[in-house]
Amino acid sequence: QVQLVESGGGLVQPGESLRLSCVPSGSIFSLEVMGWYRQAPGKERELVASRARYGSPKYADSVKGRFTISRDSAKNAAFLQMNSLKEEDTAVYYCNAVRDGVDFWGKGTLVTVSS
Fold first, then answer.
1. Is the CB of residue 20 less than 8 Å from the CB of residue 109?
2. 22: Cα separation from own chain's centroid
3. Are 89 and 82 within 8 A, CB to CB?
4. 2-7 and 18-26 as β-strands: parallel, antiparallel, unpaired?
5. pLDDT tens digits, residue range 24-44?
6. Which of 13, 24, 69, 92 could form a disulfide with 28 if both were Cys (CB 3.0 to 4.6 A apart)?
7. What angle do CA 76, 81, 68 make, to 5 degrees?
8. pLDDT(84) > 90
9. Is the dihedral of CA 90, 95, 98, 103 positive or negative?
10. pLDDT grade for 100, boundaries at 50, 70 and 90
């Protein structure tokens, strides 16, 4: 099993930045893909960004040019740098990891963008 713990959420104003972290524990070998999803109130969970161990990152169109996903291969950690935040980025952000076709999820961290 893999446990994922997110951190870094909070309340910011539009235009500000946040950096989310996802630190896995447990059986963290061979996490093929790590990514970030988000779920806003009343909406379905959606992919924000993902990155395979050996591949280019993928981003939702709504965050391209503003968000950057990175991975620390030594720690299997994943990060999401979020710049130029907008009110529509408000959501609970979930870390996701995939191994052997099995998805693992964190409990989420709340990001609120409000003036």
1. yes
2. 7
3. yes
4. antiparallel
5. 887 777 778 899 999 999 999
6. 24
7. 80
8. yes
9. negative
10. confident
User: From the centroid of its chain, how far is CA 73?
Assistant: 16
Q: What is the DSSP letter of 67?
A: E
CB atoms within 10 A of CB 5: 14
Tokens 């964190």 locate to 106
pLDDT category at 2 given cuts 50, 70, 90 is confident
Per the listing, tokens 């910011």 go with: 12
Reported residue count of the chain is 115
Cα(63)–Cα(8) distance, integer angstroms: 18
Distance CA 110, CA 42 (A): 15
CA distances from 53 to 15, 67, 81, 95 (A): 30, 18, 18, 15
